[in-house]
Amino acid sequence: MSDGPRFITLEGGEGVGKSTQLKALHAALAERGLHCAITREPGGSEGAEAIRALVLSGDDSRWSSEAEALLFAAARADHVEKTIRPALEQGHWVLSDRFLDSSLAYQGGALGLGVERVRELYRFACGDFLPDRTLVLVLDEGAERARARDTEGSDRIGGRSDAFHRAVDVAFRQIAAQEPDRVRLIDASGTPQDVTARLLDNLADLLP
Ligand SMILES: Nc1ncnc2c1ncn2[C@@H]1O[C@H](COP(=O)(O)OP(=O)(O)OP(=O)(O)O)[C@@H](O)[C@H]1O
Ligand SMILES: Cc1cn([C@H]2C[C@H](O)[C@@H](COP(=O)(O)O)O2)c(=O)[nH]c1=O
């Protein structure tokens, strides 16, 4: 495999440690001499951050399931065009906190739109562009960690039922089984350092 810049995404349910690990991975890759841009979804570009404010606030009934999936797809199209592709073209690695697989798991799986329909929407928005590797953090206690962190309440999607979030977890596992080369399940238990080591193990074949 060539040693050009890579696009890596971190995924998983609420509170599993994605933001914590994004920073740790950024530092670990910098130590290896790799310049990485870090970004997030929904968001990561001016337009996509505006959509983030729309899609994550208000009552659950604010958007239909279809409108919600379209908002995430529109945000992603802008994020890829304005932030991700330009960074890769400049030779930078890109690490994103959530990307396509969140839409597949949350809107395709848990919300019931269907994973294949959400993939089609993605292809319309972003073509055949895909992450080089997607690391899905899995942890049974994620919801408890998120509740302890979000003492002032959660956002429009984080606040959905436990059954919804269990369905998200099931969907992530199914996606990983469908695409084992790109998507890896990572045990997110233990110390942050333990988890970072597992992530790096699962990037070893991509590192120069
Ligand atoms: N390995 C760990 N052990 C204990 N606590 C952790 C660990 N990793 C992260 N945390 C804590 O758990 C909480 C959730 O972590 P973090 O915000 O990184 O998760 P997240 O997956 O980005 O969450 P969300 O998707 O809900 O934004 C934070 O309070 C963080 O400090
Ligand atoms: C990209 C994306 C995100 N979501 C959901 C997942 C979370 O509940 C929020 C984002 O909050 P975070 O604290 O920044 O992780 O949005 C989604 O449902 N679909 C998506 O495509």
UniProtKB/TrEMBL annotation:
InterPro entries to which the protein is assigned, alphabetical: P-loop_NTPase, Thymidylate_kin-like_dom, Thymidylate_kin_CS, Thymidylate_kinase
Domain of life: Bacteria
Molecular function GO terms recorded: dTMP kinase activity
Record-listed E.C. numbers: 2.7.4.9
Pfam families: Thymidylate_kin
Keyword Transferase: yes
Domain (Thymidylate kinase-like): residue spans on this chain: 10-196
Enzyme class: transferase
Keyword field: ATP-binding, Kinase, Nucleotide biosynthesis, Nucleotide-binding, Transferase
Chain sites annotated for binding ATP: 12-19
Keyword Nucleotide-binding: yes
PROSITE patterns tied to this protein: THYMIDYLATE_KINASE
SUPFAM superfamilies linked to this entry: P-loop containing nucleoside triphosphate hydrolases
Catalysed transformations (reactions): dTMP + ATP = dTDP + ADP
Gene3D superfamilies from the UniProt entry: P-loop containing nucleotide triphosphate hydrolases
Family, per entry: Belongs to the thymidylate kinase family.
Function statement: Phosphorylation of dTMP to form dTDP in both de novo and salvage pathways of dTTP synthesis.
Protein name stated in the entry: Thymidylate kinase
Organism from which the protein derives: Sphingomonas daechungensis
Record lineage: Bacteria, Pseudomonadati, Pseudomonadota, Alphaproteobacteria, Sphingomonadales
Gene (name only): tmk
